[in-house]
Amino acid sequence: MNTSTIEVLRRPVESAQYTSWVFGHRLRDAGLPGSMGRVASSVDNALIESFWSTMQRELLDRHDWPSRVELAAAIFEWIEGWYNPRRRHSTLGYLSPHEYEALHTAAITAA
After folding, report:
1. Is the dihedral of CA 100, 102, 106, 108 positive or negative?
2. 56 within a domain of the structure (yes/no)
3. Using CA atoms, how far apart are residues 96 and 82, in angstroms rounded to an integer?
4. Is residue 60 part of a domain?
């Protein structure tokens, strides 16, 4: 590995470096996508932070797992069995994705 690759892949020490112009250009020059949105956007990480916070409270803080395999299975089940299909969304009128899709599928079928 050459030193320019190491510098590009190194995690910045200061959070401001993530959104710096130079850092963004280094990522693009290396063909790597950035992990954040625009500079000074108030919602850069809000969605994923909300997701991690919810998973921490509702799953990780409530159980202990004897192995990484069991933890991975529990995380998968939580995401695919509850978080994605059944949790209520404020943007969907506090319906779950299943309820929202059923409501709109019925309306389309009736039309």
Report:
1. positive
2. yes
3. 10
4. yes
- Report how many domains make up the chain: 1
Which amino acid, residue 24? G
pTM: 0.52
- Would 13 be classed as within a structural domain? no
Taking the CA atoms of residue 17, residue 53, residue 100 and residue 90 in that order, the dihedral angle to the nearest 10 degrees is -80
36: left (phi over 0), alpha (psi -120 to 50) or beta: beta
Backbone angles phi, psi at 95, to 5 degrees: -105, 155
| Distance, CA of 11 to chain centre | 19
Task: Using pLDDT thresholds of 50, 70 and 90, give the confidence band for residue 6.
Answer: very low
Question: What confidence tens digit (pLDDT) does each residue in 54-78 have?
Answer: 999 999 999 998 999 999 999 999 9
